[in-house]
Structure formats: C-alpha cells, structure tokens
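User: Show me a protein chain along with its predicted structure.
Assistant: Here is one chain, sequence first, then structure tokens.
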Amino acid sequence: MNNKPHIIVEPTADGSATLFVKELDEHYHSVKGAITESQHIYRDSAFLHRSDGTPIRLLEVGFGTGLNAVVTAMVADEQHPVHYISLEKYPLEAQLLTTLAHDAIVDPTLLRAIHDSQWNTPIPITPYFTIEKRISDYLVDPLPQSIDVVYFDAFAPDKQPEMWTPKAFARLYDCLNIGAVLTTYCAKGEIRRLLSSLGLTVERLSGPKNGKREILRATREK
C-alpha cells in the first residue's frame, strides 16, 4: 500500500458503514456489522474485561476509521479511565471519514474530537479518555511500553502476513504488563498457537452476534 489505495464506503449488516480496500480485497470492519465488531471484540472483550478502576494504557494496532477508539471513549469514566495509543501507518483523509456517517451511530462530539485531534501527541478528549494517535510503522518503530490492553485490528493474515509473524508478536509481548489482555477477530489455529508459544493464555470466545463464530483473547499471566 505504498501507492494511494482505492477505498470505497460500503454498508454493513448492522447499519453502520465500513471501508473496502480494492487493492487488498479487504474491509476495515466486518461486513456483518462494523460497530458491533468494535464493541464486542475490542471494547467489551478487552477493555471492559480488563478495566478495574485503575488507569489503563491501551494500544491499538490500526487506527483505521477510529471506530474502536470512539466506542471505547463512550464508556470511559471514573471507573474506566484510559490512555488510548493508536498506531496507524496510513491515516485516512478527513473527507473519507466523514462519508462513513458514523456520527449517526456513535457520540458525534467524541467522534469529531477524536478525528480532529493532533497526531503524534497525547490529547485529552474527556477527563477519563486521552488519545495518542501515532503515525507509525508497527513493524519497525519503537512500541509504547507498559500496555494493559491491546486491540489487534490489523488486516487479515492472508492480506498482511507480515503483521502476524512470530517476530512481530514477540515485540508486542515485550510491551505487555502482567495481566494485560489482547483481543483479535482472527481465531485461526496458527494464530492461537503462536500466541500460546509466547507464554500467553489464549481463550476462544464467541464472536459478535451474526458475525464470526469465534474470536481470540490472550492474557499475559506472568
């Protein structure tokens, strides 16, 4: 994706929109439901599962449309404070994000504030949600440390295999605090075994309603 990709807006089954990248033959979110995916796989199965009232450092691999960030900001409060760090190598243009019309399905004020926030610096959006969008190459740039939650939302292994290698995940493992959790939509056996080989405890969870049958959650126990 060194050249500007051809991206189009497409509806998903829950009424929310996603983006389709023609060159990769891949969608940014599940066609079964974009917002449903963000809420179930990432916010509920990772952030709310791990959040215990202490400040959480969350790392998202792939900012994309910002939907994962927005649904997380919507539940961030005194009991769920979060510093949200998102890595994106290819930020999307503001005009394209507007055409998704996500402001009709999420808090429009939070959505606008997150999209308008400056890159490469921490920006407080609410007293309990700070976002730090980094223009970064996940594979080679230094990764943030002391992470409690990971949203691993890269394109699928058959589309971007370099993102799912043992070396890439080993770097990520080194960033995790004890008790940290990682979730991903990809439940392939090879990914499950890879995460287990690093010492993570891996669970297969039910996927979103009407969506993928299973997702993965991995926990660093020690």
